[in-house]
Amino acid sequence: MKKYLLDTNICAYFLNGKFNLETKIDSVGFENCVVSEITIAELKYGVEKSTHKEKNKKTLEIFQSKFDVIPIFPALDIYAKENARLKIKVKILDDFDLLIGSTAIFNNLTLVTKNISDFDRLEDINIEDWTVVL
Question: What predicted TM-score, i.e. pTM, was given to this entire model?
Fold first, then answer.
């Protein structure tokens, strides 16, 4: 079965009830979807800068209980290689996005994101955009 790494923007849309993502994730199986440590860090930052910190903190805790969180450490060699390659081509990608994409590549996961044009710069990455209505 195909497995998916949910990008931060997809997680934010899911938390906000957009794009019918709960149904989509349910259709592929919550157990087949994971998130990166980087995504959790970005979501925690969002909680800290929000006006409803306690409510959002609880929402994030519930969210985290639904998905496995995978580490970035095993993907650091891919991160370094891709970062060097992209800088030579002057197609720089944000470090957090590059770490998330590298994690998807290392773990042979399909990255689910709305930011196709950012991540398609990476070699050997599989991407899907679940916000597009077909």
Answer: 0.95
Task: Give tens-digit pLDDT for 28-54.
Answer: 999 999 999 999 999 999 999 999 999
Write out the two tokens for 19.
């794009």
| Phi-psi category of residue 56: left, alpha or beta, with phi > 0 → left and psi -120 to 50 → alpha | alpha
Provide φ and ψ at 106, rounded to 5°: -60, -40
* DSSP annotation string for 79-125: HHHHHHHHHHTT----HHHHHHHHHHHHTT-EEE-S-HHHHTTSTT-
Rounded to whole angstroms, the Cα distance separating 65 from 37 reads: 14
3-state helix vs strand vs coil in the chain, percent to 5: 55, 10, 30
Q: Please give the backbone phi and psi of residue 35, each rounded to the nearest 5 degrees, phi first.
A: -130, 155
- Quick one: DSSP state of residue 130? T
Contact in structure between 23 and 128 (CB atoms under 8 Å)? no
pLDDT surpasses 80 at 133? no
Continuous segment of H or E residues that includes residue 10: helix 8-15
